[in-house]
């Protein structure tokens, strides 16, 4: 890692859950929640400005979502601090995936992207 990478090192962890009581498989309506933990492993405080998601179902249909902050907030994270939130999405198949990034602005004026690796959305017992 370069010095800049060490200064601006935001990591994201994801947990997902299928929500059967809000889903309606007979109407191709599958609801998932995802809990995100964002942690500043860098040496410079940074603020999350915007988000970008790509949500893809098993039919290959993708939807892009862009917006300010997350759950109505733009968390400011000092080194070592984290922010956790839960949100949700709806897809038309029992299996899909999400990936994306957060656009961050560090106190030293550097804008950088915190990537969110692809993670699966899966109704239980669909994937073996």
Describe it.
This protein has 128 residues and is mostly beta strands. The chain has a single domain (3-116), classed as ApaG domain (Immunoglobulin-like, Sandwich). The protein is built from 1 helix and 8 strands; from the N terminus they run H-E-E-E-E-E-E-E-E. The chain has one helix spanning 3-7, and strands at 10-18, 30-40, 46-57, 62-68, 76-77, 82-91, 95-106, 111-122. Strands 3, 4, 5, 7 and 8 form a 5-stranded antiparallel sheet that branches. The chain has a 3-stranded antiparallel sheet with strand order 1-2-6, with no helix packed on it. A hairpin with a 4-residue loop joins strand 3 (46-57) and strand 4. It is elongated.
CATH topology category name: Immunoglobulin-like
Shape: elongated
User: Number of helix segments?
Assistant: 1
In whole angstroms, the N-to-C terminal distance is 37 Å
SSE order, one letter for each helix or strand: HEEEEEEEE
Secondary structure class reads mainly beta
The major beta sheet can be summarized as:
5 strands, antiparallel
Q: How many distinct folded domains?
A: 1
Q: What's the assembly state of these chains?
A: single chain
Going by CATH, the homologous superfamily would be ApaG domain
Q: What is the level 1 CATH name?
A: Mainly Beta
